[in-house]
Amino acid sequence: MGSPIHCGGRGYATEGARAALEYAFTVWYKDRIISLIHPANHASIRVAERLGESLQGRTNALGEERLIYGIDRESYDSRPALQIPPAQTGASAILTTW
Hints:
Elements: H1 12-26, E1 32-37, H2 42-50, E2 54-61, E3 64-72, H3 73-78
Antiparallel strand pairs: 1-3, 2-3
């Protein structure tokens, strides 16, 4: 089996998560979005915080602890614009990270 392609640190997860948040708020008209993140997944925690999400609590999902990060529409609308260099755009991602 081959090695996975390393894409960490290029902004793909941030850009994908930003696009998913924007879609959820502007197309689906959701009032609040949460991300369930494994406590050891520090990169996903940084992405959530970079997008304006804050720690809301903890839960158990599929038998494992998850951090609940979230953002509501008002906080999303009032946050400063996220600046990502043009060379680091274009990827997609989901908000739930395992």
